[in-house]
Design a protein that fits this description.
The chain is of the alpha+beta class. Helix content is 30%, strand content 31%.
Length: 99
């Protein structure tokens, strides 16, 4: 079954660039190891401090479980935030142009 997780949050202004670098490393690692069954996108919002992550994956296995870059991203994640992150599970209704 295809499932999705949408995560949205705001970082402190002095942490936004570092947060982006850490997110880029996650994407670089995913591209290098190609775990399969995963589509992942990270967006930095126009306010410069808001981020949205969308992960769409097949099956129930954690596609980030053995990711060193993802572990580094989460190491001090709460310290970079202003308020809590919103995490929503979603069902994929349809897609276009995202492979």
């Amino acid at each position: 079954m295809t499932a999705a997780i949408v995560v949205q949050y705001r970082t402190r202004a002095d942490s936004a660039a570092h947060n982006q670098r850490l997110a880029e490393r996650v994407v670089e690692e995913l591209n290098a190891r190609d775990p399969g069954g995963l589509r992942y996108q990270v967006f930095r919002l126009e306010d410069g401090v808001g981020f949205v992550h969308i992960a769409v994956f097949d099956g129930t296995a954690d596609p980030f479980g053995d990711s060193c870059a993802f572990a580094a991203f989460h190491a001090e994640f709460p310290a970079r935030l202003v308020g809590p992150a919103t995490v929503l599970r979603a069902a994929v209704v349809g897609t276009y142009g995202i492979e």
